[in-house]
Amino acid sequence: MQAAIEAVDLAKTFPAKGKGEVVEAVRGVNLSISQGEIFGFLGPNGAGKTTCQRMLTTLLPIGSGTARVVGLDVARDPEKVRRHIGAVGQLGGSDGAATGRENLMLSGRLYGLSKRDARRKAREVSELLDLGEPLDRVVNTWSGGQKRRLEIALGIMHEPEVLFMDEPSTGLDPQNRANLWTHIARLKERGMTIFLTTHYLEEADALADRLAIIDHGEIVAEGTPEELKRQVSPEEVQRRIQREVPSGATLDDVFFKICGRRLRDAESLEV
Questions:
Q1: Which of 97, 168, 180, 206 is least crowded, fewest Cβ atoms below 10 Å from its Cβ?
Q2: What are the beta bridge partners of residue 210?
């Protein structure tokens, strides 16, 4: 079976301001991602995650090496590649002054759908991502979780084979993040390949079939979440917590009693 995404010796450098030198943002990355797979891409800030994704989505010229998406050469056939992919960026692309339905209709029309097909597709993605209630309100009035689901809906209006998502749950509270994970899993069930860039280990663990960790522009580890966890800790250890927790306590109370930190604070930490 043809890989959905392939990269061979992918590299990118940028000039260093005022130093006459270059910064090696990506250094010889090799990837092979199967069709229908959720692939997690993890790494600290500045590791090269977003640069890799921008090259794969044709938003940034490839420095050296090669990349293919659904069998198409990213450098030689960027327009064809764009017809087969969707992208959900960190900053989003919806118009806050327009309604959700207007945003979806515009996206569909920009991808060449007729008004009738765009209207049908807008209904379909709205049902898939639970956007029915706010759909006819201006987006500026939506919650953070609703806006992120709208961004995904905009990215799949043209039924792409591959969806690139750059830190889709950043800034969401734990409940909205878990809700978003459910919707991402639904996209996989429909056969979509998902390239998921994230800071959160628990997000990759919950969603990814396989993942890669990038640091200083290089892949330093790759495998399934279970394989990578066994590399760090080959033995499984179970521990029963016997501390008293007040009746009716929340998960936040339990976390605070054990770790001395509220869960909402811990959720703001990036891994």
A1: 97
A2: 39
Query: For residues 58 and 78, is the Cβ–Cβ distance under 8 A?
Result: yes
- Give the residue among 61, 110, 271, 84 at the shortest CA–CA distance from 192: 84
Pairing outcome for strands 64-69 and 5-16 = antiparallel
Question: Model-level pTM?
Answer: 0.80
Amino acid at the residue 136: D
DSSP output for 209-266: SEEEEEETTEEEEEE-HHHHHHHH--S-----------TT--HHHHHHHHHSS-HHHH
- For residue 255, the one-letter residue type is F
42-69 mean pLDDT: 93
β-pair type (64-69, 72-73): antiparallel
- Calculate the alpha carbon distances from 266 to 248, 260, 263 in Å: 21, 10, 5
User: Considering the chain, what is the average pLDDT of its residues?
Assistant: 84
* CA 197 – CA 39 distance, rounded (Å): 8
Spatial strand order in the sheet of 5-16 = 21-33, 5-16, 64-69, 72-73
pLDDT, tens only, 169-222: 877 788 888 888 898 999 999 999 999 998 788 888 889 999 999 999 999 999
Residue ranges with strand state E in the chain: 5-16, 21-33, 38-42, 64-69, 72-73, 85-88, 162-166, 193-198, 210-215, 218-223
At residue 99, what is the residue type? Answer: T
Rounded Cα–Cα distance for residues 29 and 43 (Å): 13
Mean pLDDT of 70-81: 95
Residue 119: count of CB within 10 angstroms of its CB: 15
